[in-house]
Write the structure tokens for this entry.
Amino acid sequence: MTVSPQWLAIVRDVVGAAVEGLSIQEFNRRSILQPHGVNASHLDRVRVLEQLIEDQLIAIDDRFLTLGSIDGIGWLMEGLQAGDSLVWEIAQLIDVQERVVRKFDNERLLEIGLIGEEFVISELQRILPENHARRIRHVSIGDDTAGYDIVAPSVHRVEQMSLLEVKTTVRPGKDFVCYLSRNEFRVGSNNSNWSLVCVRLVNNAPVLVGHIALQLIRDGFPIDQEHLIRWETCRVQIPLTMLQPGLP
């Protein structure tokens, strides 16, 4: 199913009405009073509501709109995969606990991770002089336990090598959210030339968001309380304002 930004905007409004718990009567009254535009009439909104009910994104309970589930909705999953900000907004309104979104993230992790790594390598090859670009190594292809994905000359000081851990997401927003393993944290802590490189897929195209040294976020990681209990993976949420532009 092909969806347009105008259609998604109406979906967001309808889902917002369900979040508010509007009755069908209240929804119709609001819809009639809203400004009409191309593909945004009262009839268009009613048709979108009917489609969302069919998709089980929205349900009717005693004539009141209620939220359904995003699980298995083809156009929505395609939009999440493409990094469509409107689709992500809709999904997070419905899937407040992010149960489906987290499952989606896990299933997509390896696929989008490779896209991000290959994109960073292509950017390095574009920026670095040819004789230094030949020194780039895609480490994670043969060894995913090194604690970094790419070894390459620094784009600022080519005589120095950088260890790059690339994280890729399709989530929009003012923060960059990813997961860092204990091993990646350890390697980053022990190597000042280690950087976290952040890539975001926007409409299926990779975009370099920026990079950050582990030292700037290290204090936020958990500390083991005893030898029997230790963390292995940590969810990292970095404000975009903390990221340095470009590559290290």
